[in-house]
Specification:
With 161 residues, this protein is of the alpha+beta class. It has two domains: 84 residues, Phosphorylase Kinase, domain 1, CATH 3.30.200; 52 residues, no CATH class. 35% of the residues lie in helices and 23% in strands. It is built from four helices and eight strands. The protein has a four-stranded antiparallel β-sheet with strand order 1-2-4-3. The chain has a two-stranded antiparallel ribbon with strand order 5-8. The protein starts with a helix and ends with a helix.
């Protein structure tokens, strides 16, 4: 079976479960449901093509600068609009906790730096960057994984959004 068919089969088997998952449960945001496929990739699924495409676009821009997980192909499966993404590790932490392997950097400082870099490099503000909306790549780099509450700083700020 091709990898494309395997992904479609996986999403179909999980689609009812994803639609019924409560917001706030692991892998369940307001707009997105996440399925871990293996240690390297996962699938983000949406009920709206417009929301999927917007999130995919912003994540692709962030990934080009090492600020978001890599993005692979888009899929439409069983009424869900999906895309394949690099799987990253989610950690539970307090903002004041020191990041392992650093001299004295805390998670709050890392999140502030991530927000600054996202604004500087792709001109988007992320208003919902929290421990559940960031992940860590295999190399240990913190990346943004939730692009649902992002806005273009110049365009949206200028018009009062």
């Amino acid at each position: 079976m091709s990898s494309q068919l395997q992904l479609k089969s996986l999403v179909k088997s999980k689609s009812d479960q994803m639609r019924n998952r409560k917001n706030g449960s692991p892998g369940a945001g307001i707009h997105c449901r996440y399925i871990k496929v293996n240690k390297n990739v996962g699938i983000k699924c949406y009920t709206s093509e417009v929301v999927r495409d917007g999130s995919c676009y912003m994540q692709t821009q962030a990934a080009e600068h090492g600020l978001g997980p890599k993005v692979y192909n888009k899929l439409q499966i069983d009424g869900m609009f999906c895309y394949v993404t690099e799987h990253v590790e989610i950690r539970q932490f307090d903002f004041e906790d020191t990041v392992p392997g650093t001299d004295d950097v805390d998670y709050g400082e890392m999140i502030d730096n991530l927000q600054t870099e996202l604004k500087r490099k792709i001109n988007y503000m992320f208003t919902d960057v929290s421990e559940s909306n960031v992940g860590f790549t295999k190399s240990g780099r913190m990346v943004c994984i939730d692009f649902g509450e992002a806005f273009n700083y110049d365009r949206d700020h200028r018009f009062g959004k």
